[in-house]
Amino acid sequence: MPQYIGSKLRKTEAILRNKSLRQFVPKTVRLNRLQLLRMLQQFKMVYVKPVSGTGGNGVMRVEKTAAGYHFQILTRKRSYKSLNAMYSAIQKETRGRGYLIQKGIHLLKYRGRRFDLRIMAQLNLRKRWETTGIIGRVAAPRKIVTNYHSGGTPTPVSRLLGSLSNKRKYNLTIQKLKNMGVTSGRAMKARFPGVCEVGVDVGLDSTLKPWILEVNTRPDPYIFRKLSDPSIFRKIRRYAKAYGRL
Ligand SMILES: Nc1ncnc2c1ncn2[C@@H]1O[C@H](COP(=O)(O)OP(=O)(O)OP(=O)(O)O)[C@@H](O)[C@H]1O
Ligand SMILES: [Mg+2]
């Protein structure tokens, strides 16, 4: 079985060591009240997530506006007059478990729903990193996470991005994302030698800049079964079998 790294903070550190990836990593710090104050002053909107969470569980979207402080978990949105009042409410959710704060990305929307992308990169049969799949994930209405297990819908990238730019720009964007998968795989393996596959969660902002929201070291291969081209999942499975995952 390939190596699994649970801590999003340790994985972020590993990615930050790579000079070409650094620019795509949203600022990430451990959660405490002072850091929340600072991050909200700097970015106005942040995500608060369990350090070792999965499936979008426990993920919160936190905002500072002229009207006050707001946070949303699942589809429940609550407002507070002061940071202290909101922080007490957040602490009830975190219950002493490790959490982090990350700069929030205003994700692009498709038919009014937020979406992000999952890039699958794997060691191929020649032990070289290869991007084997890219798929979009569209959040359920009013949800702040796109995860399949939180009601997200796997969607072909061409449907999500095809209309946003011309064919040439689209192809260039896809090529960049594929390179990002390969570079992320290499960066993770440099720090954690047992890693053989990565699933990079990438958010796009309104300028189409890709942001690395997190790098999964045991990504779900089955989501790629939702694509109409069956050869994509077959290749993912072939590579995964070769390094002992499936
Ligand atoms: N900084 C952010 N800005 C905007 N959206 C975010 C941000 N961080 C996370 N999200 C949204 O929340 C979802 C879940 O976050 P993340 O992938 O970090 O945790 P997780 O899904 O619980 O972990 P895993 O992918 O290992 O199951 C993302 O796919 C994305 O839709
Ligand atoms: Mg994720």
From TrEMBL:
Keywords: ATP-binding, Nucleotide-binding
PROSITE patterns per record: ATP_GRASP
Domain ATP-grasp: 18-241
Xref: InterPro entries: ATP-grasp (IPR011761), YheC/D (IPR026838)
Name of the protein this chain belongs to: YheC/YheD family protein
The species this protein was found in: Paenibacillus solisilvae
